[in-house]
Structures are given as C-alpha cells and as structure tokens.
Amino acid sequence: MHYHLGDGTDVGSKHREARPLRCRGNSLFTTLPVWDQRYGYLLGIRPQAEYAIQDSADGFQFKGLAFPGFTDGSYAQSIPYYHSGFHKNMFTESINVVATSKDSLQSPVIIENKIGKGTSTLFNSRLGEEKTYRGILFSMVLKMLEGVAYPVANTSTIFLDDFPAPLYNEKMPPIDWEYDITHAEYVIQHWWPDMQQLANQFNIDYSAMTSVQLTTPTWCHHSTSRNGPKADIGSRCR
After folding, report:
1. CA distances in angstroms from 160 to 157, 202, 218, 233, listed in the order given
2. pTM given for the model
3. pLDDT higher for 9 or 120?
4. Quick one: which H or E segment has residue 111?
5. C-alpha to C-alpha distance for 98 and 15, rounded to whole angstroms
6. How far is CA 58 from CA 33, 87, 171, 208, in A?
7. How buried is 179 (Cβ within 10 angstroms: 0-12 exposed, 13-18 middle, 19+ buried)?
C-alpha cells in the first residue's frame, strides 16, 4: 500500500503516513541523509533533484537562536571532519536552515522543513554517528518537543579550583603527547588564550582570588599591609 500527502505526493510503502505530521502539527527528526527519493518531500528536497553529496563541508555555523542561549555560534574541530551531506542545490527555497557548514561552502547541515502544521528536521550530516556530536542531536530533539525544559546551566559563577597551578617547566602527559610542550608553555600558549576567547564570546568576567593558608581547617580575621594601609583579610587559622 502507498500513502499520499495532501498534494498527491507519493510517500511510499516503507514510510509511515504523513498525515499526522501535516495536519496535527507533529514533528519528525531524521538523523542522517536518506537516499530514498520517496522520502525527499519530508526533507525539503526538490521533486526532480539530482542527488549528490557535498564531500568537503566542515564545521557548524548556527543561524540566529539555534538553541536557548546560543545565538549565531560556530564550532569546528582543528582536524576537519566532513559532513558528507546532501548538496545545497537539492533543497527547496522554502526550507529553514538552522546551521550551515562553517567553511565558505555554507552547505546546509541542520534543516527545518514546514509541512502543514508539522515540522520535519534533517541533520544533513554523517557526523551524528560520532559521539562528539550527539549533543547537537539531543538538542535538536528537545527543540521539537513541546513543554520540555532545556538543560541550561542557570548560574552566574563558575569556580575553577587551583587551575592552572602549579606551572611546571617539564613535559608531562597528556600535554606532551598532544602538543610536545611543557605544562607552563601549554597554559601560556593555549589555555589562557582559550579562556580569553571564551570570556569574549560569552561576556564572562574573571576574578582571581588568593588563599592565605591551605593547611588549617577554620577561618579567623587577620590584618596585613603591603605598600599601603592595613586591611582586614579572612584567612584560615587553628
């Protein structure tokens, strides 16, 4: 038996009837490119499109508010991992592109296709098979579900305890395996620039604090002075 959508498009015997998606406002999420042309209507592919793969598309460039608290963000690994998704010329002009590849190709990676009251979302990539990218798939599923809370850290302060400290001028694992530099060089050349980039991207203010004593269990007040008037400070004492 073959099912047909409201406009007469043949969906095929291997797919569920599309009426609930079209008329009831349901959602469909496809986690990788599907080559069955009968499925193309749901993905937003043109009826007479010639199926082709975009081999060299890499990274993610999100458009607008892709996820709660994540606007116009981007992501790419230092070593390119290609999406191997459908070519952008295959899709209709009515699709909503949530994310493209980060490179100059701007190949559509996450696509929303409105079908009546429903929405069909395609993850136009083979990277969903990799564990690194499963968080994106999870976020896309949550975005389609109505009345489900999105897991965003509701906090204004993140505490990094004793990091980076101490700084050794020695090559030790795992830094030496990946970078062939000392721990001190890693912090100066990689860690701190990354922290600055993170602060600029998410408007984070860093605060540095000094612990006076680390060996005693309770706190009491002392005073100290250096190049100026005395000031009360909190330190731990016995």
Report:
1. 10, 17, 21, 21
2. 0.61
3. 120
4. strand 108-115
5. 25
6. 16, 13, 33, 37
7. middle
